[in-house]
Amino acid sequence: MAEKISQKIAIEVIRRKLQLLASVSPRKAAERAFTLFCTPKRKPVKGISTIEDKGTACSLKADGYTIFGYRWNHPAQRRVLIAHGFESSLKNFEGFVTPLANKGYEVVAFDAPAHGQSEGKEIVLPLYIKTLAAIYANYGPFDAYIGHSLGGLAIAHFLETIPHDRSVKVVFIAPATEITTIMDRFFRILHLNGKVRKAFDELSTEKTGISPEDASIRRAMHNIHATVLWFHDIADDITPYGDVERVRSDNFSNIQFVVTHGLGHRKIYRDQQTVKQVIDFL
After folding, report:
1. What kind and span of H or E run contains 248?
2. Same domain membership, residue 55 and residue 27
3. What are phi and psi of 58, to 5 degrees?
4. How many domains does the chain have?
5. Angle ∠(96,114,22) on CA atoms, nearest 5
6. pLDDT tens, 26-63?
C-alpha cells in the first residue's frame, strides 16, 4: 500500500513538472517525457537462481553496450531465443527453460539493454532490434522465438530483417502490438497536451528512425512468414486487446490466437497452461 501511494505521489510530481515545462516549451517537455518513456525502472539484481546456475553465462556487445545472458542445453539441434519485456528480465522466464530443454531445444536468453545485468540506461526499439541481431550473429540461427511485451515487438521487427519461412516458430505473449497505444496511455497518465504529443512523436521518429505508426506488429506481420502462436488477455491494461482485434481482422493465415481471461499482462507468461501450450506448439 505504501509503495503504491509513493508511486502516485511521484507520478503527480512528474506530471506537474512536465506540465509547467510544457507551458514554456512543448519541445523541451517532449524531450523530458521521451527520456522518461525510454527509461525502465531498474530492479535489484538478485543472486544467481537455480536455473541460471545450470546455464552458461554469456555476454556480447550491442551498439556499444555489454549485454549479459545465459544459454542452456548447449549444444542441441534446435535453438530458441527468449526476449523479455520492458522493466522485466530473463529471470522472469525461467519457467520455460527446463521444459524447452527437455524438448530438445538449446535455450538462449539475454537481459535487454538497461535491464537486469546488462548495461545502459534507456531502451528504444531499434536498440532492442540491434541486440537481437547481435545475439543471432553470436548464438543463432534460431528455430523459434518467444517474446513478451516489448520483446515481442522487437522480435517482429527483427524477423523483417532476416530470411525465414513457416518452419520458424514464434510465440508472442502479450506483445506490444502498437507503440502508439503505449504512448497514448503514457500521455493519459501524465495529462500532457496535444502540442507536447506532436513534438514527442516527431522526437521519437528523429531519435529512433522509426515513426510511432510503423512500430507495429500489425504492420510487421505483412513481412513475417513464420508460424505464430499469439497469447493475449482480454483484461491486459498495458498492451490492450483492442489492438489484437485489429490484427485478427486482417486474417493472417500464419497466426493462431489464444485469448485468456483474468491473467493480465504479466501473470499470463507465468501461467502453467500458457507454458504448456507454448511447449506443445514448439
Report:
1. helix 241-249
2. no
3. -135, 160
4. 2
5. 125
6. 999 999 999 999 999 876 666 777 678 899 999 999 99
